[in-house]
Amino acid sequence: MPADQLDRTFAALADPIRRSILARLAEGEATVNDLAEPFSVSLPAISRHLKVLERAGLIERAREAQWRPSRLQPAPLRDAAEWLTARTRTWEGRMDRLDAHLTRKQKDRRR
């Protein structure tokens, strides 16, 4: 995943309202009104959140008559998860090596 796409994904995920919107869209498409319902923010504010998510490639907005349903686009989330998994493996490997080193040092001191 290109770094700028990863930056947009994580920036979009940084906001709790946007994460909640994505969680709702994981259940199926929804309109702005549907998405705004659980929040105490204005429709224009929800629309701004949707624009951030759309620019990050996390959602797609369609036009159906007067409705503009939004749909989750999971690819950027998968890419971000893969990036996190790779970093996790790296750090777990380092921690395992540190643990092994410290265990050897402890055994050496006991001798």
Spell out the blueprint of helices and strands.
Blueprint: H1 3-13, H2 16-25, H3 32-36, H4 43-55, E1 59-61, E2 70-72, H5 75-110
Helix pairs in contact: 1-4, 1-5
State the domain count. 1
% residues in beta strands = 5-15%
CATH class: Mainly Alpha
Q: What's the total number of strands?
A: 2
- Give the low-pLDDT segments: none
Structural class based on helices, strands and sheet pairing: mainly alpha
**What's the story with the biggest beta sheet?**
2 strands, antiparallel
Oligomer: single chain
Tell me what the CATH architecture is: Orthogonal Bundle
CATH topology: Arc Repressor Mutant, subunit A
Number of helices: 5
Question: What overall geometry do the principal axes of the alpha carbons give?
Answer: elongated
Helix percentage range? 55-70%
How would you write the strand order of the largest sheet?
1-2
Rounded mean pLDDT is: 92
Radius of gyration: 21 Å
| Element-level helix/strand string | HHHHEEH
CA distance, first residue to last residue: 50 Å
Assign the CATH superfamily. Winged helix-like DNA-binding domain superfamily/Winged helix DNA-binding domain
Structure overview:
- This protein is mainly alpha-helical and about 110 residues long.
- It has a single domain (about 5-110), classed as Arc Repressor Mutant, subunit A (Orthogonal Bundle).
- Helix content is about 70%, strand content about 5%.
- The chain has helices at about 5-15, 15-25, 30-35, 45-55, 75-110, and strands at about 60, 70.
- Strands 1-2 form a two-stranded antiparallel sheet.
- The longest helix has about 35 residues, at about 75-110.
- The mean pLDDT is about 90.
